[in-house]
């Protein structure tokens, strides 16, 4: 599976824990979602309606070798924030080429399928799809 090293490391970390520990790790990621820079407002970001909770993202591909990703999700949506934080930790600063090479279903490798509803998992897939669409457009 083709993944940038930071994302592969996140996947590996999830694969090393079992059951409820995976949820705990997802919540840790949720708490680590970076704040938006002061010059970026949620209103200017793209909504991801496939997510069950309000999620907004912004892809800055001005430098295709170091793509910047920004996410906004409410604190009361820890699963969505966790997914966004995983993508931020694994893909922010990577090249457009490397991000586009990430398999659309990489999130299945996290092993969260038995713990999180398929609808929520599709939200993570939708985030990655929208990021890729921005990089292709």
From TrEMBL:
<comment type="similarity">
    <text>Belongs to the SufE family.</text>
</comment>
<feature type="domain" description="Fe-S metabolism associated">
    <location>
        <begin position="12"/>
        <end position="133"/>
    </location>
</feature>
<protein>
    <submittedName>
        <fullName>Sulfur acceptor protein CsdE</fullName>
    </submittedName>
</protein>
<dbReference type="Pfam" id="PF02657">
    <property type="entry name" value="SufE"/>
</dbReference>
<dbReference type="InterPro" id="IPR003808">
    <property type="entry name" value="Fe-S_metab-assoc_dom"/>
</dbReference>
